[in-house]
Structure formats: structure tokens, C-alpha cells
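ok so i was messing around last nite and threw this chain in just to see what happens. nothing serious, just curious
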Amino acid sequence: MVTAIVGGTLIDGTGIDPVKNGVVVIENGFITAAGPESRVTVPAGAQKLDAAGRTVLPGFIDTHVHGTYRARDMRQHLLNTPTYNILKSIEVLKETIACGITTARDMGGADAGFREAIHERLIDGPRLLVSLGMISQTGGHGDQWLPAGMRIQKRAWLPNMVADGVDEMRRLVREILMRGADFIKICATGGITSVTDSWDEPQFTIEEIKTAVSEAAAKGKKVAVHAEGIAGIRNAVASGIHSLEHGWFIDEQCIDQMIKSQIWWVPTLALVPLSIEHRKKNKDWASNQLGQEDVKDAQIYSLMQTQIPIWKEAVRRGVKVAMGTDQSHRLLVGENMAELRFMVDWLGMSPMEVIVSATTQAAACIERPNLGALKAGCLGDVLVVDGDPLADIRVLEKRDRLHLIMKDGHAYTNRLNS
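result:
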């Protein structure tokens, strides 16, 4: 079937000026033509979808999600069976595509089975790239040990993700890649939800991180690194990584190295401030924590305010930014677009720059050049929103304004007249 989306204003994801009265033609899951109606011929017999008065964009890419379910309440988590958690994950994945995310990089939780089930349309969800899990040192952010003296497996379908030293790192990276990972995820600092560490302490040596990078490269894969505090960030950017996840406390030295090494930055800005807001409104959610999340969130949020000038300078100097949210059981499922306003306010990016960071820039980050743009040859991922996101980026947060969500030419949401 051939589909033509007509009459809307095209923002094609490349950063060029919007095109009024645009047309996007999709056939067999791919865009075959896109541009002003004066230059695009709609094939005879095509199904026409009327986007007049609305904005047409590429499907958005979230480069940092955790798309699989686990109960936030640890007691409930221990009572759930693995199959229940897998089936509950279907809801998470469905909510993610329902807010306009048509591709996502899963940073821990989804294995190759989730990726293939979505690809075969057994379940609805964004196109996935998977890391399986977060590689951690003993006692690190991805170590699930608890003071009771046991490790609680959060997702029973994943291997043990703890490694210490170069040899163990090499073996674990090889195993994860063998199991079908698209990329490798490593924790170079502690984290907010951890029980046995602080968010700002460094984890793994440069030698250990470089081992992961070289082993991944042997398979043509890249390494993404969770790093929040400055010491771990410095270790990560010195190790030849592909993308820095969070990276809130970068400094001038890090900016220099990231520009020199062309390291991507996925800043995930919304999670901490929105967690603080959510904690005030939902006492049950606030009480279900193990790792002093409230204390860590407050510390980080306070320090974030002092970092805003440095973040803006990093963007001004040309650090490559890809949109990512850190969507997880903690927050942001189905609300991924909230990240965009923080990128405007805290990074100093224009709405157009933010859209580019979530489309063609994010596609470059995940090395999928056939995504993120409304141009011939790209996969047929399209959003149609009621409103102008260049005037107000927040219109993309409002689910009732998303009149079309299309992936591979298949409409998951369609409220347009044909």
C-alpha cells in the first residue's frame, strides 16, 4: 500500500526551514518522496492522510530507555514471576511508542527477544537496540547485592552483569555480544537507585573500560557509559567510548576530550527534577525506594543548577547531543517528550535544535542513517502533531495532540482524515 501524508508543515529532522503544504509518500515501509506539494507527485491510488494545519515530523528516537517492567515495590518484585514481568513489559513498550518514540536504545533490561518480538510485530513498541544489561563492578551501580546478604535478580532473563578486572570484563562483554546485544552498556560511576554506592564515586578503571571498548569494536559494536560524577566521567571519556550517558558534572576538560574524540552526550535532564516533583505528589511511590533516592535526587538537583552554564557552553562549542530520557520503572514511561523542554531551558538549544537532536542526530548516535528524517530512502517513521513545536516545544508532550504515530509505514495511532 502507498500512503501520502498531505497538507501539513514538514519539519524533516535535518534542521532546514519548515516546508508548508508538504507531502510525505510512504511505500512498503519506506519514504519514497518528501517535500513541498509542488515537487512531489502523489501516486495514483495512494491513501491520502490529511495533515492540514498540523506539523509533520520524523518519528522520535530516545537513545536511553529501560523498556522492561519491574515492580518499584521490592516486596512485589519478589512475588512476581519472570513471565509476569515480561508480559507487563508489553505495557511499557506500548506506552513508549504511544508518545511518539518510534526507536529506542534500551540501556538495560531488554534482551534480543524483545527486539525481535517488536520487529515481527508480535507486540507494539519502538524499534529497539538492546544492551541486555548494565555491566558493573562488584558493589557498583549495576550490582544487585543487598545488605541482607543476597543479590536480587531484577530481570531473570539476563546474565549476571558483574565483572572485576580486565579478564572478567573481556569475558562478560563477549558473552553479552554473543547473546545478541547491539551495543555494550557500562557503569563508570554509582547511581541514584544503588544501595551500595554514591552517585559521584568512580567505578571501573580506564584499563577495564578500554577492554570493553576494544572487545565491542572487534564485533563492530560501540560502548555507552553511565557516568554521573566527574571522576567517572573523566575515566569514561578517556577510554574511547561512544556515548556518555547522563554526564551531568562534565567540566571544560571533559568537553575538550568529547569534542576531540567525537563522543556523544545523552544528558537525560528531566528525570531528577521530575522525580522530585513526583515524590511530593505520590507518597506511595516515594516510600518504595531502597537506595536513598530522595537524598541523591536532592543533592544532584541542587548541583545541576550550577552546571547549566557549563552545559550551554558544551552545546555552543559543538558537543554532539542526542535526546535520551532514562525512562524506567522509576519515571517517564509514556512521558518521554518531557525531556525536550529541559533541553531548551537547560542546554540553551532552540526548539529546532532539540528536534534535530531527537531525530537525525539521535539516528547518527545509534548509527542508523535510515532513521530520523523525512527523506527518500528512510524508514517510514512519521509523527503528525496538532500545533507548532517550534513555537512551543511542549506541544509534543500532549498525547491528545499526536494525531499520527507511524513506524515502518504502519500507523499505531491515526486520527487523521483520509
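not much to say yet. Residues 344 and 350 are 6 Å apart (CA to CA).
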